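Renewal narrative, Specific Aim 1. Our central claim is that a sequence can be written position by position from structural information alone. The example that follows is taken directly from our test logs and has not been curated for this report. It begins with the structure tokens describing the chain, in the order in which they were read.
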């Protein structure tokens, strides 16, 4: 509910940021009743701790979204699109047409049955030599 890890939450309880849980006599487990839960949510939203001090919470990082692949006039195979992305992650920018032509040169009978890492390596070396 608070977007905090359990360990971070309990560390903030011990430092007075969040209120202490209620411990019932029947069981030793800490319990946060509805009022305490609401208080914790208010603290998270307002940034004013249970002890009255201001507190800053880091925002949860969002994972970067992957850009959608461009739809060119010539549809490329999924395999070539993966090669373009793999080459981009290695720091080499190449168009789908360049990758498709290079794969055709290096593997005239196709690259099925060849390890994908080996295909990426050979295409990378070939295209890097041209640029």
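The sequence written for that structure reads:
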């Amino acid at each position: 509910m608070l977007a905090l890890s359990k360990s971070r939450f309990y560390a903030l309880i011990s430092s007075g940021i969040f209120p202490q849980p209620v411990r019932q006599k029947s069981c030793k487990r800490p319990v946060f009743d509805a009022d305490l839960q609401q208080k914790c949510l208010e603290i998270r939203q307002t940034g004013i701790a249970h002890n009255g001090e201001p507190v800053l919470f880091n925002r949860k990082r969002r994972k970067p979204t992957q850009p959608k692949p461009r739809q060119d006039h010539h549809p490329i195979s999924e395999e070539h699109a993966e090669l373009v992305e793999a080459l981009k992650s290695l720091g080499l920018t190449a168009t789908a047409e360049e990758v498709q032509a290079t794969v055709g040169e290096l593997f005239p009978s196709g690259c099925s049955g060849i390890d994908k890492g080996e295909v990426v390596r050979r295409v990378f070396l070939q295209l890097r030599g041209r640029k």
